[in-house]
Design goal:
13 strands; 40% helix; binds pyridoxal-5'-phosphate; alpha/beta; four-stranded mixed β-sheet; seven-stranded mixed β-sheet; 15 helices
Amino acid sequence: MTDTRSSELYQRALALLPGGVNSPVRAMGAIGRSPIFIERGEGAELIDVDGNRYVDFVCSWGPLIHGHAHPRVLDAVIGAARRGTSFGAPTSGEVELAAEIARRMGSVEMLRMTSSGTEATMTALRLARAATGRERIVKFAGAYHGHVDGLLAQAGSGLATHAIPASPGVPASAAAATTVVAWNDEDALLAATEAGEPLAAILAEPLPANMGLVPARAGFLELLRERADATGALLIFDEVISGLRVARGGAQELAGVRPDLTIMGKIIGGGLPAGAVGGRAELMQMLAPAGAVYQAGTLSGNPLAVAAGLATLELLDEHAYRRLASFTDELAAGLRAVALDAGAPPVQIVSAPGLLTVFFSATPVSDLTGAQACDHEAYAAWCRALLSHGVYPPASQFEAWFPSLAHTPEQLESTLAAAAAAFAELA
Ligand SMILES: Cc1ncc(COP(=O)(O)O)c(C=O)c1O
């Protein structure tokens, strides 16, 4: 694998973009190398600027559930672009996309679109605070909800990857309104909800995927609902990753727990910038101009993103969900088998339909502390070896793999062969 052109671009980028990238986890510093610059994607493959090909398990960190440049998604985007890229006025596609999401996500009656998951989180918090007249939020260590001031303490994703416990530049007042609780810790949750300032919201990823994939223990999501009800707080599920991926109706459908508000992103924009917050009509009607809670966006509900999102959802029928689940199961089982055969360091392989993490740990991981205690050096070496064998993994132990519907049986085989070789190099 040569990376001459990537290295040259990175050197130029370092002078122009902080860290050489426009979003931190792309930098690949956590696996001890510089970033790979991408030329194009084809299905489940990436081709870099040096001509190297990789089976892609990042898939833009989630939006590309049908892989790169899916013809139906492309046609929809090109068709929309021909009609005009943005109007700052409503379009029929926005109504159709909202209706389609509401059909799928049981708790969503109405929604407001944004241009990113971060903005959707900001809107959800503002709504929760307006609805309850309270300020304090409970969130969980290792969860990531976008780069929102008050939610960066002990956050997952890029902050965990770069060991940033809480970002400088966050006003003390913003951080003071957040109580951070360890994921899966019932006692800590009870303590945080029984005492202290009244709560506006409990905010959680119902299937956390930003400290690696760390599902809730049995009963924990039900406890979140019970605690929200008991304290008069809203329950907000951040389904930016899990929504429309792990099941038609997201992680909330799988768990059978209904939040008051749901934050969405990624898949709903089909690879173009989009996010949304949705929930019960009486809450959503508080947003301007129906209500007084202000929120707005020049490119919100952008016609290209809406077209890509609609085309993406149209392709996501029951058959697609079964196929994604069985591909992920085969990948997980195959990785377990090759790790065992290679006599590699112990790993824990956790998966849900369309999501997977290989934790380099001898014991199951149930929270951020467990994810931090993994053998990050071994994960990094394994990832570098995977890249050299033509597989592109998330370059951080704290990020999930994103198997897609574009991955073929042949790519599964070549991935397992690469993983076996990479494990053998570690053994
Ligand atoms: C669960 C979750 N919430 C929110 C966000 C923020 O979304 P965006 O990057 O679109 O702002 C992310 C991003 O990865 C996420 O994983």
